[in-house]
Amino acid sequence: MNYTINQLRIYLKITQTQSVTKASEELHLTQPAVSIQLKNFQAQFDIPLTEIIGRKIFITDFGKEIAVSVEKILDEAEAINYRTQEFKGKLAGRLKISVVSTGIYVMPYFLSGFLKQHEGVELLLDVTNKSQVIKSLENNEVDFSLVSVMPENMKLSKLELMQNKLYLIGNKNKQFKDKIYDNQIFENIPLIYREQGSGTRHVMEKFILKNKLPVKKKMELTSNEAVKQAVIAGMGFSIMPLIGIKNELLTGELQIIPVKGFPVTSVWSLIWLQDKGFSRVANSFLNYVKKEKGNIIKENFGWFESAQY
Length: 309
Hints:
43% of the residues lie in helices and 24% in strands. The protein is an alpha/beta fold and 309 residues long. It folds into three domains: 82 residues, Winged helix-like DNA-binding domain superfamily/Winged helix DNA-binding domain (Arc Repressor Mutant, subunit A); 112 residues, Periplasmic binding protein-like II (D-Maltodextrin-Binding Protein, domain 2); 103 residues, Periplasmic binding protein-like II (D-Maltodextrin-Binding Protein, domain 2, 3-Layer(aba) Sandwich), CATH 3.40.190.10. The strands form three sheets. Strands 3, 4, 5, 6, 9, 10 and 11 form a seven-stranded mixed β-sheet that branches. Strands 1-2 form a two-stranded antiparallel ribbon. A two-stranded parallel ribbon has the order 7-8. Helix 1 packs across helix 2.
């Protein structure tokens, strides 16, 4: 057999996406180029790896077994590259982190300096909702996760990073003249929610339940950005993390409505499985964050820590 690393990468991506088109998009290659490499790879086997039924591609049982071997080969090939870098005295390897969607406003600042120091480190950052973050932790698919609500019934270790503050927000169209409102304000404003499984939704519902707020649920959206745009458009109000609305507050597109009991607070924490065996890269990153946490917060989040509304 005379297959290439490029053919292996293309074949594995096809098995993962179940589509030549999607594989070509994710690999940033043309569809004909992917199809040719798949054909050349398949030609080296006497047993079919794939079947085309209609316009859909299916991976045969034999093809699935080959995909498992291909993934191991690619992992070993990458490990050779990392070992080469380490032999030269450089830190090298993969750092895998899952982040809840609002954490994208936080995590890059804790990664930037580390990645600049260690160019041989490859970052895999998955930005998703809380339930998917927990799933990736349970399956040991990541080194760390960033959350603002600690998962329950899991043996975890954590490093607290900074406070998370949530406020009631609206767009610029309606004026709120009182210095502070009581909870009855919720009787007259429709609330926009994040989807089930979201950390923001969890904190929001916990606060509503605890304070027995008379809320009117308007709609449910699947990302913080969607909620933000809906509020700006005047479709309703929401309870959102301050960290994600800085620019909209500065431009006046959004306003914070002063309500008794706000802000609602939680804590951004870097978490990992309690018995996790760290790679050199993961261990180095954790030590970096422990050492530089204060400087990172002071340099990038001074406005947030001192914000008073």
